[in-house]
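COURSE: Structural Biology Practicum
ASSIGNMENT: Worksheet 4, Part C
STUDENT ID: 0417
INSTRUCTIONS: Below are two proteins. For each, the amino acid sequence is given first, followed by its structure token string. Answer the questions at the end about the second protein only.

PROTEIN I
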Amino acid sequence: MRSEEVISDEEGRHTLRMRESIAREIAAAGGWISFERYMDLALYEPALGYYSAGARKLGAGGDFTTAPEISSLFGACVAKQCAEVLRAVREGSILEVGAGTGRLAVDLLTRLESLAQLPSRYFILEVSADLKERQRRLLHAALPHLGDRIVWLDGLPEPFDGVILANEVLDALPVTRFRWDGTAFEELGVTFQDGALSSAARPADPTMTARCKMLMAHALSEEASLGTAVLDGYVSEYCPRLQSWAAGMARSLRTGAVLWFDYGLPRAQYYLPERRDGTLLCHFRHRVHDDPFRYPGLSDITAWVDFTALAEAAAAADCQLAGFTTQAFFLAGMHIDAEMQAFAGGDANRFARLANQARQLMLPGEMGERFKAMAWLRGLDLELSGFALQDLRHSL
């Protein structure tokens, strides 16, 4: 183990309790659980899961950094997109799902106040008690005069008018993992043997087999045309709950927009033959690794988003798919350059720092292309500026 990965005694006890809890569930299930169930436990088990326990997750002292933590430019641009919707909705509010440290909420409300377009309410739906407390402290310190507008919820408000916003939420939904052995699909689950968690395969049932064939139709047809087993051992994943979860989020929306920001791909690009190890990623202390069984309860586990599935969910939610683009083109459409000028206020050094932050948000090798933005609309006929420069809906 590398020295920088040495964990404290307290962290060691925590991950041991998490591992023991998962082992008990595996034993009760007959020795095997699905990876989806494992990921659910590792992330959300009360008091033990990564998002349910008290470990610091975001920012310099955490495990990963999101766009709002990199720069307030991101929140300022998203705020201007929200303002377009709020102008068209009578007494509209904002609902942020999974608000992280609260940084995005601060940046959104600050910029919306400067635009004289504050929402009637700023709702936050957060599953992590630790993050909820951090959000309260940050928002109270930064925007004490707006405290009466900010409301934490345990469930969705109904009916809701305004903007529903989710930044890097979908990638944390538990996924099912599968493998193609050259002749059939297998489901990859989790066992506990000799004191260790490990992956174990079993034949996929007919429903899962049909799902995998649909997802990989292009790759399988390409393999068949070549007459070779190029996909033998191919591993990937899909999120069984993405469509129903996303549609459920929008169910309370009466008039307004849903804005999704996350890393991912359209389905045709997601399941390419060369992406044979899938997209599962784990984060621990700002390092990326591919072992979901390392430090359960301490490591984040994520998978890229199938944006075709998210687009399909729009129809299930009775919403219009109003836009799909890269994060770079979204920010350009919201005139991030003008935000940089306004933030710098003539200070050349500050402008240089902001320019560096903008590069992190926009360059292809950073977040610019890996991260995508998608918009749904209901009850509105509105052109959204963030999606005006590039339209990738045809790729879905």
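PROTEIN II
(use this one for the questions)
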Amino acid sequence: MTSDRDTIFALSSGRPPAAIAVIRVSGPRAGAALERLIGRVPQPRRASLAQVRDPATHHVIDEGLVLWFPGPNSATGEDVAELHVHGGRAVIAAVLSALAKLAGLRHAEAGEFTRRSFENGRMELTAVEGLADLVAAETEAQRRQAYQQLRGLLGDRAESWRQRLIEALALVEAGIDFSDEEDVPKDMMSRALELIRPLGEEISKAGARQGERLREGLRVAIAGPPNAGKSTLFNRLARREAAIVSPFPGTTRDVLELHLDLGGYPVTVLDTAGMRETSDPIEREGVRRASEQAASADLVLWVTDATEMKWPKFSARCALRSAPNAAAWLVVNKTDLLTEKERKRIESMFAKDENVNLVSSSIGTGVDGLVNALSGFAERFFTPEPALVTRERQRAHLRETVLALERAKCAAQEGREEIMAEHLRLASRALGKLLGRVDVEDVLDVIFRDFCVGK
């Protein structure tokens, strides 16, 4: 941290108007900024009541609490000040304007406070990614996973792996550099091999559970023939008129998305065009997109019209063919249009099939049961154990580490100590990149651009 670095400031609380607004200042001139705005620097880490004045006019802007966190024991590792003022737009604008008038201060860029925390060693990169996910979390499950990353679930484990690699590398290099010394053991390479042998499997297992799934959410595609009631079901799930409903086939042309929180898990429901052969080029594009979404979904709800008795078995086959890599459920819709005899016939037909749901999306019958089934599917889909890896970047560095370890073991078996040492260095470097300690400049901008200003 250099003394000539810019001091940054920004609103770090929510969008105004609000009861309280928190304006954060970080950098070498944070203390001087407090001197100009409130006339003093309060005691560290103790809230102090003060009047905030415009340094140009000396007029009082507002009265609030001020906190002072001298570096390096602060969130960013620099001197940090926080002004807790009233959250009206005019108050916030006046305080930000007053700060902008001070020499050496500028408005922070998106994610700049967190970036300084990372650069000053207050956070490692996996924790930064966890913080980004925590800010973006929309469901309870996403919040839990992000918080675990923020608290070092992967970072602490990766650091322990890295320390074991460094220890193994030290043994190999000692064997190379001091092989002629009588008091140096001759089994240094085998001892190093014992240290790294379980590491490859341990790291591979860590990357097996896909935490990205929870970040991205479960994707459920509503598919089926035209006029089966797909858009009506979509609207019923959305609890609003999200999709246009019409008795004419081919109304839905594009894919509509609905984001739900089911039992704390994120679910994206997709309403797609009716599957049929058509000469209309626009509808044909909609059918193509529908097929594409069904093929990439995690679960397909194939909706069929209960009054069309020829559909049920045919629809199940279509759903499985449209989504070979996804689960497929049959949703028999419009059951309110059936006679009592017809309804009992269909109920008995699918009584033992858990993947068939009988609903009437127009009046809501059976929809709550379908939602409960979707919640159960989401709970089973997302692993109950916390996933160590939540991003492809992390997974790539772990794969790189495992590959280097495999090559190091091969070199050890061939008695090539120098080659083994080099691959151990590469494995350690890969974990260093995971933690953000080496070669990360090319990924920092990508990570921090998703942060909001003031964080």
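ANSWER KEY EXCERPT:
Q1: The radius of gyration is 30 Å.
Q2: Residues 153-177 form the longest helix (25 residues).
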